[in-house]
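Preliminary data (for renewal application), 4'-deoxy-4'-aminopyridoxal-5'-phosphate complex.
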Amino acid sequence: MDKDKSATAAGIVERRVKRNIKEIEAYSVPHIDCSIKLDGNESPFQLPADIREKLGESLIGIDIHRYPDPEARVLREKIARASGIPTDGVLLGNGSDELIGMLILACTGSTERVLYPTPTFSMYGLSATAMGAEVIEVPLDQNFDIDLESTLSIIENSDPDLIFLASPNNPTGNAYSEDRIKSIIENAQGIVVVDEAYSDFSGYTFMPLLEKNENLVIMRTLSKVGFAGLRLGMLYAKPELVRELNKVRYPYNINSLSQAAAELVLENHEFVSENIQLVVKERERVFGELKSISGIDPFSSDANFILFRVEDADRVFSELVNRDILIRNFNKPGRLQNCMRVTIGTPEENNSFTDALRDILTP
Ligand code: PMP
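Predicted structure:
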């Protein structure tokens, strides 16, 4: 059979790629090289030298020619023990990004609807659309908290299969009111996923609610507390649900280097808590500094970053890049117009950032 024009790459994309994929944009992080990198909500702290050494020793011993343990059993057991959850209630992902995808793939079996408040982390919408689910976005209220009345009314009318609540939320930084989250967990018939990617910086967790709430799923990640390079996300839920989610998990999704490194981190975690406390202390200091600069309106944060508004975000962004400082520019029409997000760095990095801002914004 002769190939016709539709077998060219463009023709294949036109005819064979699903419409919902063609309609979305890939998740992208602008790549700009700056020495002061405050754009990715990572930890600014390197692994301590003694742990780096132990890590080297541990990685040398890995049989890289073999597949990793497909179930990451040792690591999963260690994580389960550390969090007080039974091992069969724990699922690991290649970052919580992967867990979001697994949830949407497996758990849109009834109404095929996924609900989340906006603005929030873009992967909920991206994954849901890519997988053909219907997305329902509910705007957050004036304080970037959950609009409970609208959310409950949509839940009642549309019965979403999945509800994603990032608390603390990205990019707004605030934790949602505990009562509003609880009310959603109690009223929803579908699954409520509380994404606790930043909860180490708020000191609050919904983990104790897992036992009594069968529709609650909690996600956490190692990415924000010093190990973004490992790509390890954790999901906690009832074993019945974890068993189903495990069916859409790719085998060997946690590679052997990450498994070994994460095991080591769990055995030596004192420095992690110390670094979290340092970030929280710096967050409060940077917030005070931002408040004191005229032309900046910072939003209070429970996370490891701060969202703030300026008069001309695009100008401030490029002037910061000129000074070798990279933050995240969220400027586009709507709720985040002229908003920017800065990740809390080391005290020195934070000083360079606030000094640069003062300089840029002083007439
Ligand atoms: N959830 C939220 C709210 C996030 O902000 C992020 C990272 N930007 C993630 C999940 C994904 O984290 P991970 O690195 O574990 O994939």
